[in-house]
């Protein structure tokens, strides 16, 4: 898309001359441009008509969305967010003007073959997380964190770029049509997306955190986690897998792993991520300077200004910034922009003409002419104000209006609040020229408090005493079963980081003791050995109780108590009833009874009638086994009955 219509040299809004193409985004071309009004370099992001579907050139709703997003981005002022100064609509397309970041992008570093050290990545991540924290506090979601959108100042401080515009385009109802024409491939589109974005869910501030973690991990390792040639596989991997740095990069790696969890509720906020990175910094050496790109091409001084540079036939005068939603104008030869007014241009013209007249009139009185010129356009040192009472929201604006460069250093100090300015260099009243640096030390709040490391194993009441000793308190108490800790003692501290703000509450996890057990299904007749193994595997005690049983074989399980399927405490003892074999009974006295009567008596005693030796209708003379003999339950007893009279055989008949 770059310069295929001859954009180089054109002037947008009568003010921004495009110098050279420096990058390509999803839907835009990025140019280094020269601000003729302010005599400085700027970056111009141009949404070319080439990427717009047919019929969108005059589509007012789409133009309005883009310009509203640009206006929202321009309202954000933070040292780690690229400032947007102007925006508008021209015959070359919609555009946004922002600071030109001389240090290039993180993508440029990686494309040049540079992998960053853990210390360097930590500093980049800290800057980016602070930028995210600020925009999230404003209710803004970036939605497109990627290496090309992390830019660097000439001093190597990272800033987030492309705030709002890409997200406004891709999240609209017409976003699908734009995505289809994006220069990005399918895998490019999902490479840094969060798991919830892969599921088609609406991203939130935790989604920005996840994308930043992927970017930082790539800068560390040279590859994006979960990336493959199959976009669908990449999406599924993010939804189901935990980021695993395999113990690499020490504490920094652990911080990234925790912030890269698949479930967004398990991730830290941008502020919490920043705190984690600060804590990890204590374990890392001082970072080497970043491998910044070389400064861009020199821009020749052509003598142009916003007043003197007549717009070419493709651009018109800048329109005043409208309040609220910007209306769409069908006349594309009259660009609209926000952030500058024709009044400013006329004022600059009047000052220029006055200075020129003074030079002509004063002639040889050169010093007087010089003095007048210098009063209008000179760069005399201006006194640095006392910044002690300035809040962060106004700090960048104050220094920016004076043309000074802000170097923001942070530290913690007891007795201060976050954002409080602790000191400055040079001191108030010192004269500085435009372009010189003002260093301010900003408080991150009081020194962090280390959570006591001996809380595990204490009762909650005792843990509260230990926390109170360092100015902390007990927060939420979550309970869970634990196989080793007794009920009511602290298992662990449920905090992402080991250091917290003074006065914070600390969440604890408290043991409910071992989880309840369910008595396993041990059936009648099971082996005693097997029954014991199954119960002891669950940590249950076993009490063996032997009883006679007339059905179950000796040594086999008759039943368990409580019954299978019953939920019991983890330390319960289960009774296993084991058969001791059939019960013992005594043979009853059967003499004089008839066979029928004897059968009933034997059955009642748990025995049975065996063979009958003699007539069935005669009385019983004796039994075998004999009466009063102890036998097993169910034994059959034979009987001898009285022979019939005359039935005795002679020896010869025998």
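Q: What amino acid sequence fits the structure above?
A:
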């Amino acid at each position: 898309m770059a310069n295929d219509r001859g954009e180089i040299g054109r002037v947008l809004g009568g003010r921004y001359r495009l110098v050279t193409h420096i990058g390509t985004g999803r839907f835009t071309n990025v140019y280094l441009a020269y601000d003729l009004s302010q005599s400085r370099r700027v970056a111009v992001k141009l949404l070319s008509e080439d990427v717009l579907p047919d019929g969108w050139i005059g589509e007012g709703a789409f133009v309005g969305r883009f310009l509203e997003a640009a206006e929202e981005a321009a309202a954000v002022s933070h040292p780690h967010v690229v400032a947007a100064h102007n925006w508008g609509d021209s015959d070359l397309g919609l555009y946004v003007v922002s600071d030109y970041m001389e240090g290039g992008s993180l993508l440029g570093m990686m494309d040049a073959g540079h992998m960053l050290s853990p210390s360097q990545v930590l500093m980049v991540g800290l800057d980016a997380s602070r930028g995210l924290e600020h925009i999230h506090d404003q209710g803004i979601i970036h939605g497109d964190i990627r290496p090309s959108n992390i830019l660097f100042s000439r001093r190597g401080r990272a800033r987030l770029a492309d705030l709002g515009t890409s997200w406004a385009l891709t999240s609209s109802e017409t976003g699908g049509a734009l995505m289809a024409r994006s220069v990005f491939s399918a895998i490019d589109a999902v490479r840094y997306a969060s798991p919830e974005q892969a599921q088609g869910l609406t991203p939130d501030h935790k989604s920005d955190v996840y994308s930043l973690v992927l970017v930082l991990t790539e800068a560390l390792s040279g590859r994006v986690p979960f990336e493959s040639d199959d976009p669908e596989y990449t999406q599924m991997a993010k939804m189901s897998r935990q980021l695993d740095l395999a113990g690499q990069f020490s504490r920094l790696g652990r911080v990234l792993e925790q912030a890269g969890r698949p479930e967004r509720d398990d991730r830290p906020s941008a502020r919490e991520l920043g705190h984690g990175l600060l804590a990890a910094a204590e374990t890392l050496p001082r970072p080497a300077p970043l491998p910044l790109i070389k400064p861009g091409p020199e821009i020749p001084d052509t003598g142009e200004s916003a007043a003197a540079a007549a717009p070419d036939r493709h651009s018109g005068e800048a329109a005043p910034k409208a309040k609220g939603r910007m209306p769409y104008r069908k006349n594309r030869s009259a660009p609209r922009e926000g952030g500058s007014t024709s009044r400013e241009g006329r004022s600059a013209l009047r000052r220029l003409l006055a200075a020129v007249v003074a030079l002509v009139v004063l002639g040889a009185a050169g010093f007087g002419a010089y003095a007048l010129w210098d009063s209008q356009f000179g760069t005399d040192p201006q006194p640095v104000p006392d910044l002690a009472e300035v809040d962060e929201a106004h700090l960048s604006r104050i220094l920016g209006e004076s043309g000074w460069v802000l170097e923001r250093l942070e530290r913690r100090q007891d007795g201060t609040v976050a954002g409080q300015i602790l000191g400055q260099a040079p001191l108030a009243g010192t004269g500085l020229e435009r372009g010189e640096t003002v260093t301010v030390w900003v408080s991150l709040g009081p020194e962090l408090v280390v959570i006591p490391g001996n809380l595990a194993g204490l009762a909650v009441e005792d843990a509260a005493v230990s926390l109170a000793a360092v100015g902390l308190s007990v927060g939420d108490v979550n309970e869970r079963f634990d196989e080793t800790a007794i009920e009511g003692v602290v298992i662990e501290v449920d905090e992402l980081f080991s250091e917290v703000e003074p006065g914070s509450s600390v969440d604890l996890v408290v043991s409910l003791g071992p989880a309840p057990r369910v008595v396993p299904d041990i059936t009648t007749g099971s082996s005693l050995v097997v029954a014991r193994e199954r119960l002891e595997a669950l940590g249950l005690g076993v009490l063996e109780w032997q009883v006679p049983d007339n059905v179950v074989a000796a040594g086999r399980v008759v039943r368990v108590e409580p019954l299978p399927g019953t939920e019991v405490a983890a330390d319960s003892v289960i009774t296993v009833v084991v058969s001791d074999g059939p019960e013992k009974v005594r043979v009853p006295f059967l003499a004089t009874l008839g066979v029928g009567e004897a059968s009933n008596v034997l059955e009642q005693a748990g025995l049975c009638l065996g063979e009958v030796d003699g007539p069935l209708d005669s009385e019983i003379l004796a039994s075998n086994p004999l009466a009063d003999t102890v036998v097993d339950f169910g034994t059959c007893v034979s009987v001898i009955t009285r022979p019939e009279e005359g039935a005795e055989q002679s020896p010869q008949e025998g």
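Q: And what stands out in the fold?
A: Confidence is low (pLDDT under 50) at residues 172-184, 305-379, 649-654.
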